[in-house]
Design goal:
- By secondary structure, the chain is mostly beta strands.
- Helices cover about 10% and strands about 25% of the residues.
- It is built from one helix and twelve strands.
Length: about 190
């Protein structure tokens, strides 16, 4: 009986722990400025965002993403600027900055395996790990401070917009489906 009860407690703890893992984590500037996050889901559902104070702000029900259905969540980064996004089947995510203030300093999408489109333009990213995002088809990451990026695992990538960064090299040899590539204004050599 004790073993069964212990096994159930371990299982509940594991499920609870998995449910509390953020799909996407960002670090943003904290200066009182609001910013928007745009989220699209694989199936009808809701997403939640913690802007750094531990409080989850839930979206309305988002219809399945078809290129248009998405939710914009607006908030102000607080605390240390760690923003956590929770949601099952996130296929579209945008955290572009249009004005100074609340720019994204880092983004972790390794827990968002369904991600197909990622847009994080005009921020202060120096690196990004997208090696776990094998379904990624579109990556717009222009106007950042990237010095390198590994896209070798992103074989579904059809569009890459990475201009105005600090790249010195870019290997696209594994990206046979790539149709659109914007790479100007980097530090490529000869």
């Amino acid at each position: 009986m004790k073993r069964t009860l212990l096994a159930i407690m371990v299982l509940v703890s594991a499920v609870t722990s998995m449910a509390q893992t953020a799909a996407i984590t960002l670090k943003a500037e904290v200066n009182g400025n609001e910013r928007n996050l745009v989220i699209g889901l694989k199936a009808d559902g809701k997403a939640k965002v913690d802007w750094g104070d531990g409080t989850l702000k839930e979206t309305e029900t988002i219809p399945a993403f078809d290129g248009w259905n998405q939710a914009t969540v607006t908030g102000t980064p607080t605390g240390e600027g760690t923003i956590k996004v929770y949601g099952d089947g996130i296929v579209y995510f945008e955290a572009s900055s249009r004005v100074d203030g609340a720019k994204v300093l880092s983004v972790d999408v390794t827990n968002a395996p369904d991600l197909e489109q990622l847009i994080v333009n005009t921020n202060k990213l120096t690196s990004i790990d997208i090696t776990k995002n094998m379904k990624l088809q579109q990556l717009d990451i222009q106007n950042n401070e990237l010095t390198g990026i590994d896209i070798s695992k992103n074989t579904e990538l059809t569009k890459l917009s990475i201009q105005n960064n600090k790249l010195t090299a870019l290997d696209i040899s594994k990206n046979q489906k790539l149709q659109t590539l914007y790479i100007s204004d980097n530090a490529f050599e000869g």
